[in-house]
Recover the amino acids of this structure.
């Protein structure tokens, strides 16, 4: 069924609370990684990617906070998210948005694989024609 306005507001507040909490945890982990870097340790590829993602999320947080702090500006947030889909930090993404991104990535990979297969088939035809 349909949710009441109160339930929608509560759900949104929970979503933002969880997002800020996850961002706080990521920031703490990133701070430890930076500390390790400063002391000469090498990060793994996974750690490096997580550190970069967390730094990008912190930079994305600044414009996002403007929407949260300025009264009634949160009503414009959906419009700006349509114009700038990567504006939200990654910890604030919903499951449907994550699935949508995964589908887009998979479709792009399938298109690339199709293109490469066609290219290889074309090269094989040329080599066969040259040698035949």
């Amino acid at each position: 069924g349909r949710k009441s306005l109160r339930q929608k507001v509560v759900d949104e507040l929970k979503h933002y609370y969880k997002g800020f909490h996850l961002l706080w945890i990521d920031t703490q982990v990133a701070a430890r990684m930076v500390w390790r870097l400063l002391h000469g340790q090498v990060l793994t590829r996974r750690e490096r990617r997580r550190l970069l993602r967390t730094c990008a999320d912190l930079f994305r947080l600044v414009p996002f906070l403007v929407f949260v702090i300025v009264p009634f500006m949160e009503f414009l947030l959906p419009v700006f998210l349509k114009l700038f889909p990567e504006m939200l930090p990654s910890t604030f993404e919903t499951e449907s948005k994550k699935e949508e991104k995964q589908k887009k990535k998979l479709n792009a990979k399938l298109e690339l694989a199709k293109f490469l297969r066609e290219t290889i088939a074309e090269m094989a035809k040329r080599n066969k024609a040259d040698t035949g």
